[in-house]
Write a structure and sequence with these properties.
Length: 382
């Protein structure tokens, strides 16, 4: 730094014949160019040296390049500004701006460091597998806590930057000292933000929802795509996005299909005639489940759950390793059972029954197709 200061002082002497503002701007610009070039050279050198043995270090250098570039520029300006012929008032304002930039750089560095640490921690978990319950748990906790800490760091950074101005600092001191109506108004105004912030912390700790959970919210089925510091993005089955505040999942009931495990039991309902061979249909259901790649081999069964005037209600139960697979398996069971009944047992399909009468007397079976005269249809039980 002493050599840089000497170089800038020498350049200032060479440019003494120019107006002071021009010389000052030239010195500052030269310092910024030198700092930028030095940063770029050092970053390339580190990437070349560390890439073969430490690939993660290259990722860290890449993510921190903005912070380190700002830091080396501020370091160069701290040397260039005293060497430049600025007047005292301009130098004071530049020094204050540099202080604010330094505070912003510290906050930026803290946020980036937290993000790098979170990414390195999550490398040991795979969320793109069938059994990803543990991975989704850690992903949710880390992501929600990371966003909460980011909000806190931003608030602290802005507060520290504002406190560098004397009027704002005095106002803040007087506001905290009074702690009266202004504090009450500020608290009420910040209530939605604070409630969502605390809800995010509570969600991260208790985890009623996780990333990639299958949920039913406001009557819509979807998966949790993203959890931010204020809201949750639910990806609906038809690719729409439902935006829900964090407090919703604390204050209102909702369905979580993958709370403890991703495996689910799906139900497919069939309505058949009373002549349907239930045992044959049950055996066919087992064959369909065993042949399907979506079945997890745990649950398969068929029950007569209701008898109505004209049909029987059959409930087909099949299990699958995930909500998506369960939905696909239910559709497959319906389609193949209906096709099976159409081909091999058409008498099992629902139908209407009626007795044809003439003047109140039942017609013989042989004469019913040729019956003439006044007739009426009356419904009869099966």
């Amino acid at each position: 730094m002493d050599s840089l200061r000497s170089t800038l002082a020498l350049i200032a002497g060479w440019l003494a014949w120019l107006p002071d503002p021009v010389v000052a701007i030239a010195i500052v610009a030269l310092a910024v160019i030198i700092a930028y070039s030095l940063h770029r050279t050092v970053r390339r050198l580190l990437r070349k040296v560390l890439a073969p043995r430490f690939p993660y270090a290259v990722t860290v250098i890449q993510q921190m390049r903005g912070v380190t570039r700002l830091g080396i520029v501020l370091l160069a300006l701290s040397v260039a500004v005293p060497a430049a012929p600025f007047d005292s008032q301009t130098a004071e304002w530049i020094g204050r701006l540099m202080l604010i930039a330094l505070i912003a750089m510290i906050g930026w560095a803290a946020m980036t460091a937290l993000k790098i640490a979170a990414d390195l921690y999550l490398l040991q978990f795979r969320i793109d597998t069938e059994d990803n319950l543990l991975a989704r748990k850690h992903y949710t906790q880390v992501r929600v806590l990371l966003r909460t800490l980011d909000v806190l760091i931003i608030i602290l950074t802005i507060s520290a930057a504002l406190m560098t101005f004397e009027p704002v600092r005095q106002y803040g001191v007087s506001l905290f000292a009074s702690a009266g109506v202004a504090g009450l108004v500020a608290g009420l105004a910040a209530r939605p933000v604070l409630s969502n912030l605390f809800a995010g912390v509570q969600l991260a700790m208790t985890q009623p929802i996780r990333i990639d959970d299958a949920v039913i919210v406001e009557g819509e089925w979807g998966t949790v795509e993203e959890i931010t510091s204020t809201y949750v993005v639910v990806k609906i089955w038809d690719w729409r996005r439902l935006i829900v505040p964090l407090t919703y999942f604390i204050e209102k009931p909702f369905q979580n299909w993958t709370r403890e495990a991703s495996a689910l039991i799906g139900a497919a309902m069939l309505y058949v005639d009373y002549r349907a061979p239930v045992g044959v249909i049950r055996n066919k259901l087992q064959d369909i489940a065993k042949a399907s790649p979506a079945w997890d081999g745990q649950v398969v069964g068929l029950q007569v759950t209701d008898c109505r005037e004209e049909t029987m209600e059959l409930r087909c139960l099949v299990s699958a390793p995930s909500a998506g697979k369960a939905f696909e398996l239910r559709c497959e069971v319906r389609e193949k059972l209906v096709d099976f009944l159409q081909r091999e047992h058409p008498e099992a399909l629902p139908r209407k029954r009626a007795d044809l009468t003439l003047n109140g007397d039942a017609l013989p079976t042989a004469n019913r197709p040729q019956a003439a005269g006044r007739s009426k249809l009356s419904q009869a039980a099966p």
